[in-house]
């Protein structure tokens, strides 16, 4: 066996550079690069190795460890999990800064390789700078925080352990079922240690998507249930997009006349103009989709986790005879809510169902009626009003008006995702990018950067509230440094407007959410000059005074040569009341607030509608 002597860090870098993936018949590097913020825990070991493979595995510099991991995750999502990135940090706070991003990737089933530096394996200089010590066990270090939010976790205490660990890491990163974050901790002394690695370890390897077909019994059972259904509904999740099943979805819906409702991750699987697309479902859903959900006797849930926002906290499917077919590549998700499992790749199963089910008009006519009604609502709430400040819905409508078909919209937490789920009309596939599995404030700008890196030909619109912008904005500078242009719409509603509305509905008061009602020193509250702040990081920035000014600013941003930030003030009290569904947020059983008893009684009425038998 031929060997080559390399440090652990060098072997890791060469191995990553030798991994390839096949995307639409084209062979591409599986890892588009490595985001790195160096410190004493990775600069001399893995950092030295990365410097030697720049042509095949480029290294990118970021400003914040959590943000760079968000960028890598967004890149993977925009690449439909076919390509991905790695992230390396020093030991200590650099490493633990990535834990939130790991949780986000875990919830959303998205691949990212996290390579945090770690304490010395030989323990000679213990405790080292930034080491967290557990008096009960020297085996426990801060990086163990990654264990519950990683789909695969390892710590390389000897260089040769890479030989067996890395194939397992690749297995998880490319697996449709197990896909998620992989964390491999790199003790800083081991990174620099050398070993005679087999040359075969660094041979090029091409990874292809594995497609698992349905079990014949489960397929026949699902066909029987769907054949007997009178009011079926299809719910599409992110698994449809990752499987490339949009065409098969359209074929099944059109053949059988089945309405299609969308989760945040599945939105855009069908164009908004499709006759059977009834829009977002659940808490932030359309009136059309939720009406079909309440009546459905069979729900075909495709590639979705059926989380609480999708199911109205298990209260949405009101038909007592409703059966759910869980079509999912992961058996874990396929059996939720007492679903009847159909474990399969989404595209293969949808194709099989469309081939075997009889053609029918189904609910085509009713879908057309409800679509028209909801489109009227959308037109109304997204049109400019005479209020002093615009609503989020009006801002969404303005951006939609001036965007092109291939422009991508990016958002995450707060009120904007709800408005987008209800109101955004997806014009082309893969142009709607919402992180709502973890609802992570601070994702937006960093995520937008990852989307732009994956789709360089598209303009990427980042919608972010002032609260989320304040949490994480540093990658504005990174986008300019990398030449990756973003169009950031910063919606300033004076604090945490979304949660303030939720607080008002559950407690009847406003406290500690808006700047005008939160903790501050005596005197006027400080006002952040977001335009000046964005300009200080190199962005083009301006304040838009109203909807017409916003449209004009967006047009200027589209022809600009670098990232633009457009700030617009919005009314924090307004959200779209039409559509939507109840969400289980507990209301205090005892309270001195006005109307507390009535609020709790209404809450308990909805609790009784929940199905908690699976």
UniProtKB/TrEMBL annotation:
GO biological process: inositol catabolic process; isoleucine biosynthetic process; L-valine biosynthetic process
PANTHER family for this protein: 3D-(3,5_4)-TRIHYDROXYCYCLOHEXANE-1,2-DIONE HYDROLASE, THIAMINE PYROPHOSPHATE ENZYMES
Domain Thiamine pyrophosphate enzyme TPP-binding: start-end pairs: 414-567
Taxonomy, superkingdom: Bacteria
Protein family according to the UniProt entry: Belongs to the TPP enzyme family.
InterPro entries according to UniProt: DHS-like_NAD/FAD-binding_dom, Myo_inos_IolD, THDP-binding, Thiamin_PyroP_enz_cen_dom, Thiamin_PyroP_enz_TPP-bd_dom, TPP-bd_CS, TPP_enz, TPP_enzyme_TPP-bd
Domain Thiamine pyrophosphate enzyme central: 219-353
Signal sequence, renumbered to the chain: none
This protein's UniProt keywords: Hydrolase, Thiamine pyrophosphate
PROSITE patterns hit by this protein: TPP_ENZYMES (PS00187)
Pfam families listed in its UniProt record: TPP_enzyme_C (PF02775), TPP_enzyme_M (PF00205), TPP_enzyme_N (PF02776)
Organism: Kordiimonas lacus
Name the UniProt record assigns to this protein: 3D-(3,5/4)-trihydroxycyclohexane-1,2-dione hydrolase
Hydrolase is among the record's keywords: yes
GO molecular function: acetolactate synthase activity; flavin adenine dinucleotide binding; hydrolase activity, acting on acid carbon-carbon bonds, in ketonic substances; magnesium ion binding; thiamine pyrophosphate binding
Domain Thiamine pyrophosphate enzyme N-terminal TPP-binding: 44-130
GO cellular component, one term: acetolactate synthase complex
């Amino acid at each position: 066996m031929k060997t080559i002597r390399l440090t652990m860090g060098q072997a890791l870098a060469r191995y990553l550079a030798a991994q390839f993936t096949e995307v639409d018949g084209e062979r591409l590097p599986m890892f588009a690069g490595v985001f790195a913020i160096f410190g004493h825990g990775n600069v001399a070991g893995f950092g030295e190795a990365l410097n030697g493979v720049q042509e095949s595995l480029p290294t990118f510099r970021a400003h914040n460890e959590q943000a760079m991991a968000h960028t890598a995750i967004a890149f993977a999502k925009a690449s439909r999990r076919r390509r991905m990135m790695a992230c390396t940090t020093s030991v200590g706070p650099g490493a633990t800064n990535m834990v939130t991003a790991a949780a986000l990737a875990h919830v959303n089933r998205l691949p990212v390789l996290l390579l945090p530096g770690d304490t010395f394996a030989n323990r000679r200089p213990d405790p080292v700078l930034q080491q967290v010590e557990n008096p009960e066990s020297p085996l426990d270090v801060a990086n163990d925080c990654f264990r519950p939010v990683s789909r695969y976790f390892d710590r390389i205490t000897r260089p040769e352990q890479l030989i067996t660990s890395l194939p397992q890491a690749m297995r998880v990163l490319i697996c449709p079922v197990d896909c998620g974050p992989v964390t491999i901790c790199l003790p800083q002394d081991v990174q620099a240690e050398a070993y005679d690695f087999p040359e075969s370890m660094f041979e090029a390897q091409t990874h292809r998507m594995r497609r698992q077909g349905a079990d014949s019994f489960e397929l026949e059972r699902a066909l029987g249930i769907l054949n007997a259904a009178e009011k079926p509904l299809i719910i599409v999740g992110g698994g449809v997009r990752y499987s490339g099943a949009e065409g098969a979805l359209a074929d099944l819906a059109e053949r059988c006349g089945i309405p299609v409702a969308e989760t945040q991750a599945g939105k855009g699987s069908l164009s908004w103009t499709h006759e059977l697309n009834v829009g977002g479902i659940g808490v932030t859903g359309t009136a059309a989709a939720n009406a079909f959900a309440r009546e459905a006797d069979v729900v075909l849930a495709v590639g979705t986790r059926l989380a609480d926002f999708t199911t109205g906290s298990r209260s949405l499917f009101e038909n007592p005879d409703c059966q759910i077919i869980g079509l999912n590549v992961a058996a874990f998700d396929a059996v939720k809510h007492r679903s009847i499992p159909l474990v399969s790749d989404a595209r293969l199963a949808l194709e099989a169902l469309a081939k075997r089910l009889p053609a029918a008009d189904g609910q085509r006519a009713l879908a057309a009626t409800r679509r028209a009604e909801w489109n009227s609502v959308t037109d109304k709430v997204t049109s400019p009003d005479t209020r002093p400040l615009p609503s989020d819905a009006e801002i969404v409508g303005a951006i939609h008006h001036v965007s092109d078909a291939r422009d991508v919209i990016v958002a995450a937490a707060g009120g904007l995702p709800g408005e987008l789920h209800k109101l955004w009309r997806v014009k082309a596939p893969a142009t709607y990018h919402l992180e709502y599995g973890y609802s992570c404030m601070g994702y937006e700008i960093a995520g937008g950067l990852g989307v732009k890196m994956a789709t360089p030909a598209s303009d990427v619109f980042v919608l972010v509230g002032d609260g989320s912008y304040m949490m994480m904005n540093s990658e504005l500078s990174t986008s300019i440094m990398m030449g990756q242009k973003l169009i950031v719409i910063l919606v300033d509603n004076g604090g945490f407007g979304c949660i303030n509305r939720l607080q008002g509905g559950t407690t009847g008061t406003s406290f500690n959410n808006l700047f005008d009602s939160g903790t501050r020193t005596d005197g006027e509250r400080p006002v952040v000059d977001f335009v000046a702040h964005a300009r200080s990081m190199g962005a083009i920035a301006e304040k838009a005074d109203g909807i017409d000014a916003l449209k004009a600013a967006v047009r200027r941003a589209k022809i600009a040569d670098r990232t633009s930030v457009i700030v617009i003030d919005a009314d924090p009290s307004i959200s779209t009341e039409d559509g939507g569904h109840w969400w289980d947020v507990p209301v205090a059983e005892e309270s001195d607030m006005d109307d507390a008893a009535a609020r709790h009684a209404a809450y308990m009425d909805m609790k009784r509608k929940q199905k908690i038998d699976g």
